[in-house]
Amino acid sequence: MWRIRIVDLEGKGERGVLLAAKFLSSSIPETLFYFSPKGEIIWQLEAAPPLLNRDGDPFERAWALKHVVVAPLGGKQVIWAALGNDAGWAGCVLRIHGDGAASVQLANAGFVERVCPVRLPDGDFLIVCGENNDYDDAFAALLSVEDPPSCSVPGQRLVYRFSNTPAGTPRKYVLFPKSDVILARKRPYGHACQIVEHLDGIIVEVETGEDGAHLRYHFSKDLEPRYAFPSGNHEFVHRELEKAGAISHARLDCPDLQGPLMLRIWEPDSDWYDRPIPWRDNPWKEIQRTEP
Predict the structure, then answer these.
(1) Within 10 Å of residue 66's Cβ, how many Cβ atoms?
(2) Does the reported pTM lie above 0.85?
(3) Band of the pLDDT at 289, cuts 50, 70, 90?
(4) For residue 187, what are the CA distances in angstroms to 19, 114, 209, 265?
(5) Burial class of residue 1 (count of CB atoms within 10 Å of its CB; 0-12, 13-18, 19+)
(6) Do residues 172 and 147 make contact, with C-beta atoms less than 8 angstroms apart?
(7) What tens digit of pLDDT does each residue of 80-89 get?
(8) How far apart are the C-alpha atoms of 103 and 283, rounded to whole Å?
């Protein structure tokens, strides 16, 4: 449960309790509390990043904590929090020090759903994921914790702008394709709502339907694409949409499976480019075509 962490943020050898509180009343903002071992509040931080919309106005006080992680950095513990504004379109990643002081590490034109700290040979990084309303796509990004605060790559829709945009840029920004299941369900995009880290890399899960239907995109820890693989429920949702007439082809003939999926990737030195990500294998290809 990411909302509760037992951690020593002060470096005194005593662990306190970090609590990301969500209240029953929507009139009370979500708040991050840090308690001493004796249960005393050491500090509290309201979910209210200092971001301004394109007109220079603060966003509505409807910020939600989507994910909170704690990771060592430079001999100290640093909190990374993913946020989204439930009354608008904005999202961000906050960098929070052990004394509760916070700053924006990433301003994003959409919710940030997950944060995953990773260690690479050249330093400490974050992989984050969520949605981008400027492009109507799910996204993942690679951020160096040593770089200046950054912003998602702007598109053509001026409404999705911050007037106090951070000057830096991500090391890499990835947009995910829309599967035929997402399009058949008449959704603008799938939600990138989970990052799973393993020894050799990370997996970003992009929702395609209800009840856990998603595509699993495998990357190296520096966000280099490796392969994609569908969840079991993705197949089930596809079949249900076939029965409902929302998809006109059988799952064995799905156009998405006839070749690699295409990621849209931005890097500071190359701007946008397309990058294929192959299927690990076609999990449906061995199904008998005589199957009813």
Answers:
(1) 22
(2) yes
(3) very low
(4) 34, 21, 10, 22
(5) exposed
(6) no
(7) 999 999 999 9
(8) 44
